[in-house]
């Protein structure tokens, strides 16, 4: 026995005796490993099972460079000729994805492949397949791809219940960081329901210290027993590399978006039809609450599921289907992950009395009809495309629906609307003090040229009025 071994055994024995264990108890607890498996701790079996379902994605998009305005002037063109003419430019992106159906259905991030003109997917065995975009959801940063030319059943991972995760659980991240090839990193779940990360509109991320780097986006986050619980999507970093703070979209959200896109071609989410604000420490004190938790309702849309369930301004939403609500983002996330057609059990508090209500899970109505219309002529909104604002359109644009009206969907460059500062998302209230409720109203009041126009609109929740001409 070496001197080092003797010192180690003496240290272990003294530690055990210090904990109140006798030397006999120490000897009784010692077990000699009976196999190599008992000596070696490894995730290799889990990785072997999961890794074949994780793919590399190469996306290619052709964009046209903009011609500087000065080169449109005939004077400059005498000297510079075709210099500055628009040219095609190729943008390449690299990411990861996960096969979730043996037929070749792949889930990845929208920012990886959502806008690509050409997509190639490389399997772990180096085989390549072209892929088409089935649908994307920019609000959750997810996209669904279908591999083309698949004539076999591919290895796939099933989405698991991410609500079973706990802080401290071991997790593995599988992807293609920096394009070096498939890589596996390990860590733990550092936090759950992170709602302050402004990466997507629905913020309830799994935070992990498993190394996630550029190229990992769209890859798998799996548990130590091989369950797919998240899609890696972002990192917090000051230098572009991993510093131990990575975020994954929970499998519950992924599952909802995936099934909706495969069925409808787009993401369709349940609509509550109410808005509110998170209860802060000060607000909790003013409401005589024991701690800051929940969401206090400040608006209920008439005819919405919330209205039909009896929710009212001033109600405090405490739980949804048994999940405690800590802030507004968590409430929005939970409804966004629920399947349209069912019901949600919502516990509320009104004047200190606990109430339980059943809220129907309905898709936001696409009424009134959008009537998307381009506008032209000698008037302030010339060069815009406008539509009737409704709950379904608000959901697609990631905006809060308050009431019907007219919203600006696009503004063309070098047009009257662009020159006076009309922006995408502006909601028109009135023209020359004439109320505008529909696209037809806006077209009618702007049909005749005027010396001056007074425009009233709402932008980012604030009312504005300005005068054009005159």
Explain this structure to me?
The chain has 470 residues and is α+β, with helices and mostly antiparallel strands. Among the domains are: 162-264, Thrombin, subunit H (Beta Barrel), CATH 2.40.10; 274-360, Pdz3 Domain, CATH 2.30.42.10; 373-469, PDZ domain (Pdz3 Domain, Roll), CATH 2.30.42. Helix content is 20%, strand content 34%. It has helices spanning 3-18, 23-29, 36-39, 44-50, 74-80, 110-113, 251-264, 281-286, 305-308, 328-336, 391-397, 416-419, 439-445, and strands spanning 54-64, 88-101, 105-108, 118-122, 128-137, 142-147, 170-175, 183-194, 205-208, 220-223, 228-235, 246-250, 274-278, 295-300, 316-320, 323-324, 343-350, 353-360, 373-374, 384-389, 405-411, 427-431, 434-435, 452-459, 462-469. The strands form 4 sheets. Strands 19, 20, 21, 22, 23, 24 and 25 form a 7-stranded antiparallel sheet that branches. A 6-stranded antiparallel beta barrel has the order 1-2-3-6-5-4. The longest helix has 16 residues, at 3-18. The chain is globular and about 90 Å long. The N and C termini lie far apart (101 Å). Mean pLDDT is 83; it is low at 1-23.
Quick check: average pLDDT? Answer: 83
What is the CATH C-level name of the domain at 162-264?
Mainly Beta
Q: Report the CATH topology name of the domain at 162-264.
A: Thrombin, subunit H
Fraction of residues in H or I helices:
10-25%
Number of helices: 13
Q: Return residue spans where pLDDT drops below 50 for at least 5 consecutive residues.
A: 1-23
**Alpha-beta content class:** alpha+beta
Outline:
globular
Percent of sequence in beta strands:
25-35%
Strand elements, count:
25
Q: Please give the alpha-carbon distance between the first and last residues.
A: 101 Å
Largest sheet: 7 strands, antiparallel
């Amino acid at each position: 026995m070496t001197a080092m071994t003797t010192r180690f055994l003496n240290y272990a024995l003294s530690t055990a005796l210090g904990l109140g264990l006798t030397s006999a108890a120490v000897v009784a607890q010692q077990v000699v490993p009976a196999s190599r498996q008992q000596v070696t701790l490894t995730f290799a079996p889990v990785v072997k099972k999961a890794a074949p379902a994780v793919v590399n994605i190469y996306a290619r998009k052709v964009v046209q460079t903009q011609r500087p305005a000065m080169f449109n002037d005939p004077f400059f063109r005498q000297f510079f000729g075709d210099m500055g003419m628009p040219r095609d430019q190729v943008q390449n992106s690299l990411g990861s994805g996960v096969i979730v159906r043996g037929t070749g259905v792949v889930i990845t991030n929208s920012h990886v492949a959502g806008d690509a003109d050409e997509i190639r997917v490389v399997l772990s065995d180096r085989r390549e397949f072209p892929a088409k975009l089935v649908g994307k959801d920019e609000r959750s940063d997810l996209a669904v791809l279908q591999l083309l030319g698949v004539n076999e059943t591919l290895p796939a991972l099933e989405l698991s219940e991410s609500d079973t995760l706990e802080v401290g659980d071991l997790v593995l991240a599988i992807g293609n960081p920096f394009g070096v090839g498939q890589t596996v990193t390990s860590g733990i779940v550092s936090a759950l329901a992170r709602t302050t990360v402004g990466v997507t509109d629905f913020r309830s991320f799994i935070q992990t210290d498993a190394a996630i780097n550029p190229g990992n986006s769209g890859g798998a986050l799996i548990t130590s027993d091989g369950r797919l619980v998240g899609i890696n999507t972002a990192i917090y970093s000051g230098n572009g590399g991993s510093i131990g703070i990575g975020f994954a979209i929970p499998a519950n959200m992924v599952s909802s978006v995936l099934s909706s896109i495969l069925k409808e071609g787009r993401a369709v989410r349940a609509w509550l039809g109410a808005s509110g604000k998170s209860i802060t420490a000060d607000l909790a004190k003013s409401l005589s609450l024991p701690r800051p938790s929940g969401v206090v309702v400040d608006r209920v849309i008439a005819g919405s599921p919330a209205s039909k369930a009896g929710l009212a301004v001033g109600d405090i939403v405490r739980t949804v289907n048994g999940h405690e609500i800590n802030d507004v983002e968590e409430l929005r996330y939970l409804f966004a992950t629920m399947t349209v057609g069912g019901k949600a059990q919502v516990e509320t508090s009104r004047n200190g009395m606990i109430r339980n209500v059943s809220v129907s899970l309905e898709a936001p109505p696409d009424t009134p009809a959008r009537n998307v219309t381009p506008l032209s002529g000698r008037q302030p909104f010339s060069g815009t495309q406008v539509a009737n604002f409704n709950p379904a359109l608000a959901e697609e644009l990631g905006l809060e629906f308050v009431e019907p009206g007219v919203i600006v969907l696009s503004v063309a460059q070098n047009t009257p609307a662009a020159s006076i500062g009309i922006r995408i998302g502006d909601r028109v209230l009135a023209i020359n003090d004439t109320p505008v409720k529909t696209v037809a109203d806006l077209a009618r009041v702007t049909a005749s040229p005027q010396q001056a126009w007074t425009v009233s609109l709402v932008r980012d929740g604030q009312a504005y009025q300005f005068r054009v001409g005159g």
